Records
---
Amino acid sequence: GNSVTQMEGPVTLSEEAFLTINCTYTATGYPSLFWYVQYPGEGLQLLLKATKADDKGSNKGFEATYRKETTSFHLEKGSVQVSDSAVYFCALREIGNQFYFGTGTSLTVIP
Amino acid sequence: GAVVSQHPSWVICKSGTSVKIECRSLDFQATTMFWYRQFPKQSLMLMATSNEGSKATYEQGVEKDKFLINHASLTLSTLTVTSAHPEDSSFYICSARAFGEGTSSGANVLTFGAGSRLTVL
């Protein structure tokens, strides 16, 4: 079946530190992969996506590469800011099917 | 961009009472809305898919008589937790897919509400 495994948090980083949030998946077909972000008090927002192997999604300085060989979609950012403090969800979706989410990783960036 | 409003954001109720959570698409029509539930330290789990004008489709293990879903219009879906018990305490979040968005693309995205935290005493 389909599933998403995401590194547990919480993660606390100093401003300008490098961020990696690991995400691996299990899928029966060829899913699209997503990272969603939830800022305090707000709904989940799409951060970035990749629809096929070797695609790189990027947005707001965040990047994630669809690695089929390692079934991974790790989220990275070279220099985090306080405003990046949020909960990050990795997700997959196969065509016509539902989304499968990871457990979410809480990130706190301290000045 | 598309906005989904979910209300209430927090609700505390006594055991045995019913609680209604509303999910509204504010600036688009949503033919399909999804209801998720998240227990602490667990994944967001899909509970049901609601389509405007028809019965909701529930995921395996979700009691349809306990979690009543109504999608009476293209902008509103409601989830009613009937006879709530402490084990129903959870974070409920809805999402919507806009009218016209097909299911053929893996890039299909959803717009999520901010979620509703239910605590049953």
Note: The interface with chain A takes residues 4, 6, 9, 34, 36, 38, 41-46, 49, 93, 95, 103-115 of chain B (CB under 8 Å).
---
Amino acid sequence: NAGVTQTPKFQVLKTGQSMTLQCAQDMNHNSMYWYRQDPGMGLRLIYYSASEGTTDKGEVPNGYNVSRLNKREFSLRLESAAPSQTSVYFCASRLQASGNTIYFGEGSWLTVV
Amino acid sequence: GQQLNQSPQSMFIQEGEDVSMNCTSSSIFNTWLWYKQDPGEGPVLLIALYKAGELTSNGRLTAQFGITRKDSFLNISASIPSDVGIYFCAGQIGTASKLTFGTGTRLQVTL
């Protein structure tokens, strides 16, 4: 039962570097999400994809881009990393865009120095 | 953006005690979810609520969807050490694609 799998688990970047966080789900879910978690802030939505072929901004999209590569995969890209993007990133998915529960990956710890 | 106020922020309790936490919103939600996050892991769903007034249990956990649809409550009875973690509420408005999360309640259980 893989569920939602995201890589890498840990990453250290220098300011200005770029990187892509990968996410894949094997539950045939239509909707996928990227959240960031910061101390005292809870989970904040960066971008989401309600269905294959669509992407939309969430609450904190600045500095990020996403690609819904296919139904299984949804990647998050930092084009020019900044220290403010140091955070824990969670990918999530759910069957439909509304009305169903959301399942999370195990998180990616990103540090930008 | 939409905010959920979750309280308390943290709790230190003794094993065997009951725990109560709540989540309030300025907007009406039609779905409330409660998640638990263990250290180094992603959040895991505990309970889902879909109707105002609904009371749902999952083992020692009981959650309620507030009648006003602007709040939800989670109770844990007879706490044990493995209850340690961060508990998040999450709400959804209408048929929106997005969930809004609370800031979390950190629970510590002492023996």
Note: The radius of gyration of chain A is 13 Å.
